[in-house]
Design a protein that fits this description.
Shape: elongated
Strand order of the largest sheet: 3-2-1-4-5
Number of strands: 14
Order of helices and strands: EHEHEHHEHEHEEEEEHEEHHHEEHH
Number of helices: 12
Structural class: alpha/beta
Largest sheet: 5 strands, parallel
Radius of gyration: 25 Å
CATH class of the domain at 7-68 and 97-177: Alpha Beta
Oligomer: single chain
Length: 408
């Protein structure tokens, strides 16, 4: 194969599928493979991936396992949460926001090793192939991306198992049968799709949920926590300053305990089809409520309403894989500008699947009790001013009403 790559950096989980991809790259292209495994807080022991890669012939210096949890939350999750981003009004973009970071490291490792290609294990039906590849091309326009699921003839579970057996790839007992559903996980969320979940008319079985207790089984007593923000980013829980990844980890535990952050969602994939997913975003759901709570008193209405109007576009860019696009960066600059005074603390009530902001305070607050009070405001607001305000705003409506009355 004349155009075969000489070195490929593979996004490698250590699981069966990416182990098959690793061996396929070696046999199909005869190339050297470098593996990259990212710890994004998926909750799995990643060192077995090293042993698996070595078993498949990868030299120790070509195996990279990196803890990216702090970078993930600080540079990707937190900027997204400054925007209160929700795709199609519901989805907190847990899978979407992880892909650009993985692609960034794939490209960086390709440069470090002098590799001429990167590879991923995303299928040709989903969004992740788009996210990985758009990010890679944005960061290195000359990089080659190999997507084995779009190239090989291993089109069934049986063929994958046969390939694994022929190439002495270890197969866990639970991998021989059909997996009941597919899972993607990181520190922000878990996503479960496929197989048992493909019929959107059927309620998802309880065993699908891995990060949260059933809200009906959550504690009967509410729990209250306080989250502190500086310039739009959470910095402390209950007065204790914490790193970004630690904050999300701790919020996940609060959310798990109280059954917060479950979502059964049928979404529109970028490639054109609808898919049904079960998402659990316990800490992210709490963080969103907290961030909106502090914005309520620190963000001007004009800035807040503009930001809210732009949010669906921003969320769609992330969902579709355009994190490294100029338009996302332009929107981020606007969003970050809006967060200059989003500093203060919120009190949240956690109870049986719900999180509610019940208090908020800030030295940067725009809330004026003197202006809004039902008691004597000591001249802070002259109610007579409202008459002229209403007259001017009503003028065009009156003119339209008079015009319409003539033609009835």
């Amino acid at each position: 194969m004349t155009d075969a790559p000489k070195k490929v950096v593979l996004a490698y989980s250590g699981g069966l599928d990416t182990s098959i991809i690793l061996k396929w790259l070696q046999t199909e292209y005869g190339c050297e493979v470098i593996t990259f495994t990212a710890d994004l807080g998926q909750g799995e022991e990643l060192e077995p991936a090293r042993a698996k890669a070595e078993l498949l012939g990868i030299a120790p210096e070509n195996i990279h396992i990196e803890d990216l949890r702090e970078e993930f939350v600080r540079d990707f999750v937190f900027p997204m949460f400054r925007a209160n981003a929700l795709y199609e009004g519901l989805y907190l973009l847990g899978t979407s926001i992880a892909r650009p970071l993985i692609s960034k490291r794939l490209v960086e490792l390709a440069h470090q090793h002098g590799a001429d290609a990167v590879a991923h294990g995303a299928t040709g039906k989903g969004n992740d192939q788009v996210r990985f590849e758009l990010s890679a091309y944005a960061l290195d326009p000359s990089i080659r991306v190999i997507a084995p699921w779009r190239e090989w003839d291993l089109t069934s579970r049986t063929k994958l198992i046969e390939f694994a057996e022929q190439n002495q790839i270890p197969i866990a007992k639970d991998k021989r049968g059909e997996a009941p559903f597919s899972v993607d996980a990181n520190l922000l969320h878990t996503s479960s799709e496929g197989k048992a979940l493909e019929n959107p008319a059927e309620q998802a079985p309880d065993y699908v949920y891995q990060r949260t207790v059933n809200p009906e089984d959550a504690p009967d007593t509410p729990e209250y926590i306080e989250v502190t923000f500086e310039r739009g980013d959470a910095t402390a829980i209950n007065g204790q300053a914490l790193s970004p990844a630690t904050i999300l980890t701790d919020l996940n535990e609060y959310g798990r305990k109280h059954g917060i952050g479950r979502l059964d969602f049928v979404e529109n994939r970028f490639v054109g089809m609808k898919s049904r997913g079960i998402y659990e975003t316990p800490g992210g759901t709490i963080l969103l409520e907290a961030h909106r709570g502090i914005e309520q008193i620190t963000l001007d209405s004009g800035a807040g309403h503009l930001k809210d109007s732009l949010m669906p576009r921003y969320a769609e860019l992330i969902y579709n894989g355009f994190w490294f696009s100029p338009e996302r960066e332009m929107l981020q600059a606007l969003i970050d500008k809006s967060q200059e005074h989003v500093t203060g603390t919120v009190r949240l009530k956690l109870y049986k699947g719900s999180v509610t902001c019940v208090g908020r305070w800030s030295d940067h607050s725009l809330y004026s009790e003197k202006h809004v009070t039902f008691e004597d405001d000591a001249g802070a607001y002259d109610q007579k001013d409202a008459a002229g305000f209403i007259k001017l705003n009503a003028l065009r409506l009156k003119l339209i009403g008079n015009r319409n009355a003539k033609f009835k």
